[in-house]
Amino acid sequence: MPRILILGANGGLARNTTRVSLAQTDATLTLYLRRAHRLKNPDPARVTVLEGDVLNADTLKAAMRGQDVVYANLAGEMEAQARTIVDAMHATHLRRLIFISSMGIYGEVPGQRYSSVLDPYRDSAALVEASDLDWTVIRPGWFTPDAEVEYTLTRRDEPFRGHDVSLNSVSDLIVRLATTPGLHVRESLGISRA
């Protein structure tokens, strides 16, 4: 029964992944977000909701104690948040990190040029990849609300395939990573419906 800390728990992907995790696993979840009143606890027996900012190292370290996996689903000051996460994981001896980024951060999407709007995603992923943690970076395509779970994975040095991917597909990958020790550790995965 893994204990999963979800950072940025009120994001659309995080909320979908919380739902999928509760339905498909016996994991216990800690939902971490800046304004906890925005999120209703979906299962008080298995879910704890904590209010905190990822940039607050003390609060973040307190949330990490006793966890097995950190899943970061963030926006905003991503580079600073990635640095705080890596440092807090070192301080609490946590190893497993699943970090959401974006397709295109390596200029890997055929026919599309790299854009500076991706800088926060690229820079934060670079910090995570330079760490000695057991990380997996996920680079999803554009989210769709489709119910399907169908996706193709590409590695860092492969051209990205397709463009869109359903939230359920990305959540399926996150849940598999969080509950399968060693799966895709130290890999950067593009995910799309090819």
Automatic annotation (TrEMBL):
Domain NAD(P)-binding: 8-181
UniProt-listed Gene3D superfamilies: NAD(P)-binding Rossmann-like Domain
SUPFAM superfamilies per record: NAD(P)-binding Rossmann-fold domains
GO-annotated molecular function: biliverdin reductase [NAD(P)H] activity; riboflavin reductase (NADPH) activity
One Pfam assignment: NAD_binding_10
The name this protein goes by in its record: NAD-dependent dehydratase
Species annotation: Deinococcus aquiradiocola
